[in-house]
Structure prediction request, 95 residues.
Amino acid sequence: ESHLVSAGTAECARALGLSERSLQRKLSEHGTTFQAELVAARMRAAQRMLLDTDAQLTRIALDVGCTSLPAFSSLFRKATGEPPSAWRAKRRGKG
Prediction:
């Protein structure tokens, strides 16, 4: 999670003791891609931050590797069906 901002296929493959191609092949065998897994990890981290902190959305966006709040909001809405502020409010019992 601490590498969400700069995560790349090569670095992750190296950390797992695999070649980049082997990592891509293994992900493909499981019906996914590096990019899909990175987005999922970013969304899990964002959801945790939304629930556990009062951090501003821009701070969360940057912490999970999004380049801007609009990019984060779009990605979050695509993943969850809700904007991050509404998601947070609903789960904290304020929505």
